[in-house]
Amino acid sequence: MELVNNNLESLRFKEIFHIWTQLGVNNSYIASNHAFFKHVVDKNLKVIIVEFIQCLKEENKQLQALLKDNGVLAPSASIEYKKLKMGDIRGKTAINDTEISAILSMNIASSFISVSQSFEKAVKKKYVSKYRELHMRYAILGAKLIQLSKDKGWLLAPAANR
Questions:
Q1: InterPro entries recorded for this chain (predicted)?
Q2: pLDDT of 105 above 50
Q3: Which tens digit of pLDDT belongs to each residue from 16-30?
């Protein structure tokens, strides 16, 4: 593989591909969560959505910096959304909080797994620590959503076998 700026520690192609893919996934999660935010009624679920968006944006900043450090241009970002305000609640919802919570749960789990895989592949100490921090943030966010779902009755228990 050709070296970037004669840097022996530059990223390999598969690492660059993985980072590009993760940036695209994160941008789609940011866009969908902005849409969900407009439909959510529950204030606690709104807070989790905002925290998830913040985690995704922080991860994107770190991934873009990683690409830049290795002489690779990052993909263009999605549209910039207006700032989310906790008071923005629509009168009628097309998607209910239970459905949004379930989708959000899958998205957080997907982000957690992706960061876990990156954490596992990371070799440099500075990247390991960044992925470790993101790993914990997604784990804590997932735990908050599970607790909220239990408290609100959105988490359904499996049917008992008879």
A1: DUF3231 (IPR021617), Ferritin-like (IPR012347)
A2: yes
A3: 888 888 888 898 899
